[in-house]
Write a structure and sequence with these properties.
By secondary structure, this protein is mainly β. It has a single domain (about 15-460), classed as Porin. It contains two helices and 19 strands. A 14-stranded antiparallel β-barrel has the order 1-3-4-6-7-8-9-12-13-15-16-17-18-19. A hairpin with a 2-residue loop joins strand 6 and strand 7 (about 185-215). The radius of gyration is 25 Å and the shape is elongated.
């Protein structure tokens, strides 16, 4: 019979090596850059949501926690519902294609996703939640060539790097209600309803950089490089609440559970916050010296501390869940969010360049999950997830003739699963998710993005006889 400790040790080492390898592959791209769109607007405007496999694979539903095995960084109340203290880490890779008119370019990027920790005593209804997660970025690289009658051949390139991240810390607490149900001639006491509330303080920080290069192929002319940097910082609050109500539960005469229907609901709200931006713009003449682009003369330099207001945001969701006698589960969930960026159009005008303007953001997501029932001798089983999301992003583009406007739209289809770590007696899980989506407007010739993302993550929880943060009674 194999040694369980040795089997778990081998699995852990193998998972760690795979995690490090994939992380290295992701960092080989553009590090923490998660957004390929040129319309990320200096780190704002096209956030791709919570980059955690369990959430991304359900269409990005965040107002409701469909599982008590994963950390939900966007719902402050979710930490109270976790059964154990939990650490979560993830990475993502994505392949993207950007099309504008007849021009097309491709890229492969990736980086870390959500890293979070929930600190609590096992089965406690109070919890501390903290972590770090990327929000959005200005990751793109496009170029074109043209011919001028005076200057000759010209190559233009536009590159974006950096972006925003969010560090957060929060507290959550829950309450539970119980009800007696008939079970034949006797009765059983069940947890029939509950509510969790949470409060979170978070800080946005990051530097979004855009570099534009005009490369004149004729050596008698100097080239021009423009670098625009927007270093953001903002502190705000997020409030969240979740609740559930058992609509119906059945037990047989032997007090054995036979099935139940549960209604779930959740909501979050974040008030408006002040965004401080250290803005700088450098325009310089360059020459290629030893195959290195070198600045030789500065023609313009602007620097300012700008201030704007990020509008309030709210999310609202609900779901219906069925649990069977063999541990099987079905769940259907919906999530809706809204953020009126148009209210901040004037205050954030310095972050919107080109023929575009700020517009209101609206998003609706649908998600389903399925856990098969236990089989004789096989208690360990995975949970499968799928989702769809339709969004109107807060970027409104103008047609080529300047007569019409159209918001940037996005749709995403997702799928994923999580499974317990084999050889581990804890509730630790491996998570996998993937989603494909497209961004476009009614002006197909202006802008179109298509990307495929793959997420890989892990949640680690303690074994019942080796509880974290709990003193040992004996050694």
């Amino acid at each position: 019979m194999p040694d369980p400790k040795r089997a778990f040790s081998s699995l852990f080492k193998g998972s760690a090596l795979a995690f490090v390898f994939l992380l290295g592959q992701g960092l080989h791209g553009w590090a923490q850059e998660t957004d390929f769109s040129p319309f990320a607007r200096f780190g704002l405007g096209t956030s791709q949501g919570n980059l955690a496999p369990s959430l991304a694979s359900m269409g990005g539903i965040t107002s409701i926690s469909a599982s008590n095995l994963a950390v939900n960084a966007d719902q402050p109340a979710a930490a109270a519902g976790l059964a154990n203290p939990t650490f979560q880490g993830s990475i993502h890779l994505q392949g993207m294609q950007l099309s504008e008119g007849d021009s097309t370019t491709n890229a492969l990027t990736g980086g870390p996703g959500n890293f979070g920790l929930v600190v609590k005593q096992p089965r406690s209804l109070s919890a501390l939640q903290l972590g770090l997660t990327p929000m959005t970025s200005k990751s793109f690289g496009v170029s074109r060539t043209l011919t001028d009658t005076t200057l000759g051949s010209i190559a233009e390139s536009y590159n974006g790097s950096g972006g925003l991240a969010r560090a957060y810390v929060g507290l959550a607490h829950g309450w539970r209600g119980r009800t007696w149900l008939n079970a034949g001639a006797d009765s059983v006491l069940i947890t029939s309803r509950g509510m969790d509330v949470g409060f979170q303080v978070d800080h946005w920080f990051g530097d979004a950089v855009q570099t534009s290069i005009l490369d004149i192929q004729d050596l008698t002319f100097r080239d021009v490089r423009t670098v625009v940097s927007s270093r953001h910082r903002a502190t705000g609050w997020v409030f969240g609440a979740e609740a559930f109500q058992v609509l119906r539960a059945r037990y047989d005469e032997f007090k054995q559970f036979r099935g139940s229907w549960t209604l779930r609901a959740g909501a979050t709200w974040s008030p408006a916050r002040t965004l401080h931006t250290d803005y700088s713009r450098l325009v310089e003449s360059t020459l290629v010296v030893n195959n290195v682009v070198t600045g030789i003369d500065t023609s313009a330099f602007d620097e300012a501390v700008l201030q704007g207001s990020v509008p309030q945001k709210w999310t609202l969701g609900g779901g219906l869940q069925w649990d069977g006698a063999r541990g099987n589960r079905w769940g259907l969930f919906v999530d809706h969010s809204s953020q009126a960026w148009s209210e901040s159009a004037t205050a954030l005008d310095h972050l919107m360049d080109g023929s575009a303007s700020w517009g209101d953001a609206v998003s609706t997501a649908f998600g389903v999950l399925w856990t098969p029932g236990r089989k004789p001798g096989k208690i360990v089983r995975p949970t499968y997830r799928a989702g769809f999301r339709q969004s109107t992003l807060p970027v409104v583009l103008t047609s080529a003739d300047g007569t019409e406007t159209s918001p940037l739209q996005e749709w995403r289809v997702s799928w994923g699963m999580n499974a317990p770590l084999k050889g581990s007696r804890s509730a630790s899980q491996l998570h996998f998710g993937m989603d494909v989506g497209q961004r476009s407007t009614s002006f197909e010739s202006i802008h179109r993005e298509t990307n495929l993302r793959v997420h890989l993550g892990v949640t680690l929880t303690p074994f019942a006889k080796n509880l974290w943060l709990t003193p040992r009674l004996y050694d």
